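Example 3.
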Amino acid sequence: MPESITLALAAAVLAPMAAALVVGARVLLAGSLPGERFVRTVMGWGLSLSALGAVATLALWRGWLGPAVSGDIEYGSWLRIGSYVIPAVARVDDLAVALSMLGAWLTWLVARFSGTYLHKEPGFTRFFVLLGFFAAGVQLVAYAGALDLFFAGWELIGISSALFIGFFHERDEPMRSSVRAFATYRLCDAGFLMAMVSVHEVLGSTRFTVLGLANTLPVWETTTIAALFFVAAMGKSALLPFSGWLPRAMEGPTPSSALFYGGISVHMGLFLLLRIWPMLDAAPAVELAGVIIGSATAVYAAAVARIHPDAKGALAHATLAQVGLIAAEICLGLTTLAMVHIASHAMLRVFQYLRAPNAIHDAHRLGHAPHPVHAEGVLPSRFEARSYLAALHRLRLEDRLDALVAPVVWLARGLDWLDVRLRQALSTERDAR
Amino acid sequence: MQDGAAVNGPATDPIAAALERAHHVLPDQGPIGVFIHHNTLHAYQHLTFHDGVQAGASLLGARPYPELETFRAWHASGRIADDDVAAAIAEHLGSAAKDPIIPGLSRALLWRTLMLEPVDLSDGAGLRFLAATGEGPARSDAPRWTAALERIGRGPRRMPEPAPLPKRHRDALVAHGAADTDVLVHAELVRLSAGFLDQGQARDAMPGRGRGFLAAVSALYASGARPPRGCEGVVADFAHIAGDDRPALVVIREALDALDVPASAREEYLLAVALSLRGWAGMFGRLERHPDENVGGPPCSLAEYLAVRMVFERRAVAAACARAGLPLAWSNLRASVPASAPRAPELDALLLWGLTRAAGLAVEEVAALTDAALARVWSAVESCDDVTRRALLLEAYERHYRHEVLDALAARRARPTPDFVGRRAAQVVFCIDEREESIRRAIEEQGPEYETFGVAGFFGVAIDYQGLYDPVPAAHCPVVVVPQHEVHEAPVESDARWAQMRRRLRDGWHALERQVGRGSRTLGLGAGLTFVLGPLAAAASAGRVMAPRRSLRLRDRIAQRFAPRPRTKLSALREEWARTHSERGKPIGFALEEMVERVTGVLRSIGMVRDFAPLVVVLGHGSTSLNNPHESAHDCGACGGRRGGANARLFAEIANRADVRTGVAARGIVIPDDTVFVGGLHDTADDTIQLFDLGAIPASHEARFEAVCVVLEQARRESARERARRFDDAPLGLTPEEALAHVEDRASHLAQPRPEYGHCTNASAVVGRRALTRGLHLDRRAFLISYDPSIDEGAAILERILAAVGPVGAGISLEYYFSSVDVETFGCGTKLPHNVTGLIGVMNGHQGDLRTGLPLQMVELHEPMRLLLIVEATPESLLAVAGRQPEVAELVVNRWVQLVSVDPRTGAMQEFRGGGFVPYVPAPRALPEVQRSVEWHGRRRDFVPPAFVRAGLGLDA
């Protein structure tokens, strides 16, 4: 039933986007913020329809409603420049359906939670519009049949993530953290873009189906491309050394932290690795590096999670530990295990994040737990201190990255200075005339 | 309180002096698990309210009063009337009110204009833009605007506001546009402080913290840590400190030396440093002064915190100054700060425009104003600065409510009501809490045979109470009292075996829950658990989010079905109990004589000395909610931020004893043999009422008890309905059943930041007989304290009441005042990004200051006013009490509460102001009259003025 699948996929991807656009249009046209009930209703419809689309896709793919549908579903071309075609193609397979279901369910749940949690919050409308874009991004990533579409969804997730971190924009710290996350995403997304162009160059198309031909390419090509993809995944999933932004992402409201950094967004890098698996599999060096980076991240994050005295920071690092572990699983070739791990992990963390403010209530209920000194009796006392501080300072990852990019910042400052001077000179000249 | 000066040398040392002041002005809030309401600016209580508020707010950079725009909105909505403003100005100016400033403009009119009209702005650029686009003054009265601009051009002009002086290096750096060093210093300090103060939230504790903050941090860094970027040099510094165990004060002095801060500036400098991350600094100070609140935590010292801070700060500002090419020496850096920009002429012109408009001056007259006249205007404006305007508007705001309530009380007194004859069916004793006003009214509306009382909710039994499953006993009494007795809850003999088994089950389950919770956050175990817990979490989150009330009930029902709570008893009487003293050396339970004394004391205090009903229900209160770090702030203040159910239960048990009654009778209060006391707990979040020890009710009382239960059932529904009208996500016009379901839903919802609105309606307190207020709809705004002046010789009872109610009521009222006036500085801002830290508090996001005070969601409806304390006692009795109770006297004389005396015999009212009592003549006011409360408030969201409720007065429809 090709028409049904077309419709189902369109609903899954477009409904939340359409709902966000309706709310946005209402704001622009009326010049004022709509009531909470309007926002809740419209977004509720959008997200429910999206979830329905996801369920329908599952049913069609499993063949519950007739002959099973899978593989590429064509929607024509998105853009055509000369011989370069960006195909609008969806892909229905086990990975796509799994992520789509997971994303639709968790987004719906968090939206429902937030309708109550954000009541009377001045940013109520903004929150739900962003949630709509995020939901559309997740579905797009799930069903994208080519890298270009995937990248569009990837960017929707990235931008909404940065804006959620900076949700309380009247304070400085959220803005600093938001910019840092955004900058990390941009840096790593450069890897994605280069990889995408390279894939098109060497395989003639950006469809995921052509990645199956990766093992016919020379190893240096697959290694370069897979490495570039891996850099993109490292940014989105906060793998070492790009882990610094993740704890900072706790600046947003609790439910968005739950959905993004416990649930979906932080697992997106891993999903990318699963999606380009044939390419990764054809680059053993990258796989090896992936296992090392993933395990290192896991150990690092687990150590930080042990000493974090704040609820959300500890959860962020506990999440990251599993994310690192899953990255290693994928690079070891355990892709099915990885997808199951992602799904159950996301569901667990969302729940834990949503309950994070209950920490004191729980401590009273459960009674005080033993609180041993860090690494006492495990490490010599000198290393005890060093290990504690290293975890407390999170290896000074941010400082190190800052030092690394400092020359670029200086260059930018210099250009800015030059720009200001030039403009001033030009405008005085014009005024003089 | 430990005196900083005594420990750290003579107070002439500027560092010791700064520490001592810091101890006073830093937030004085303990770990958040037990929330005690207190006056946020308690350190300023020795000053008058206005002086104290202004001094405290200016030191903290906070708002002392609501903003002028807020007051103007209240004026526009009628919440402040014109005569309130006029009265406030007249009282403040006295005879100077009539001074003519310029023709047509008296000083009083000038003040009124400045207070109510937006003519004195500070945004010159914005105004210039408005004027240039023909908006604002240029639109509403253009010729006058041109004239005013022209006249201003010829001078004289107003002086510009002086720019705030930098208080420390960081301020000067920021003023110069350099990087804010606090970003990196605070990041470092927040992590270290949170790790050090953690009471058990992290899995691992900070190594070496038992030796104190300075020693622990220096040992950590000395082990070879990497310093934060832009803070190089701290590792060597800490290595030196660790090397010779340098004391904190020396470290601070060395840092100040390095920054070249002259001795004369040190005190202010260090105080500013302490106040720049005041939540954390305050917690160090608080735990230093109250080590008992630091469960299992390390020894805390504010000096050590400041020492660590100064080590970082010194290196950070030195590096920043070097980068920015600024001098490091404090005097030079301070002098280099650019001066403030001159005042935009448009601002002066707008002021002149507005004032001459108010004066009715013609446009030509504006142009013709002499220099002397203009100078007079400016000087008159200077004397009515922004803070003074807001202070007077606050007075006007309070006056409006005060008169409304006092007039209503006068009307109540004048209203003839039928006397009740016969015996009451039941009497219900509540806490004085203003949240109980609605349920008391709802009970009384069901018939004149029901009577209610209010007494501080620990019911005279100050105890360390250990419930069946509490790990340690906790004080259930006002914070100023140290309990001398312990009371334990233990299973009754017949349930002892089951209780033991259930305890083992429960402990096992909790251990499992804790292990699983922690394990899921580890690497290896976490990986395994994830696969099991993920699907379970999905089901749990679906249930908890989509059906919060039902899912919680289902869980409770299953628990109650398979593992019911054993029946228990309290260790009330000492002789009956096996152990007479606990490990902590306190007697367990009360001796007979002590019980008699407690019961007599409470009954006398509330005036319940005769006419006992067959059933007396005693209800403590508490509040249950989820995902709410501020849960304890909703519990009973009179029980020290805990629940009052145990106290009510204990009181009822004691009062039911025949031997106690004999003793009480010997002291002149005869409780009839057929009177039965029943203890219980009212949950103010979901409005459930739980009654204890129903086995003690004799068969003869069963029918009566059934009837009372019906009354309480009805009352809690009405109370839920009255509360629901304030939640604007509950539709208006709910039925009582729907309202009850709604509030139950709130209390069980993980996503609910407002499970209840807490004390946010508090505004007044009435100490006196219920006859003063019965039948009046007071909109949950009044603490109601039962007190019968006719049995109080020598005001001894009144003294006890005021000594407790004064500070507790003022503490709640002032905490709400400050948190609502400036929710970001005095309060803790919005709850949404809060992050529970170290089990001691919340911070914003991932690393921020520890937030103290109340969150926005608790205070958003509050009307910030000083507590209106109305006492049914003569001024002479009140003055006598004030003479014996210095804390009450301080609150009243310094006007942190507004005191009004109501003469018990004549009903004449006198307000305390200007150092003495001044008669208040109530305005005759015809109060609206409704049959039932719901008819008055049912269709409205906002505060409602007082009204008569006929059913409460004992009148028929």
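Chain B has five domains: 4-30+166-335, 31-57+761-925, 68-162+341-396, 417-430+437-490+569-757+952-957, 493-562. DSSP finds 37 helices and 23 strands in chain B.
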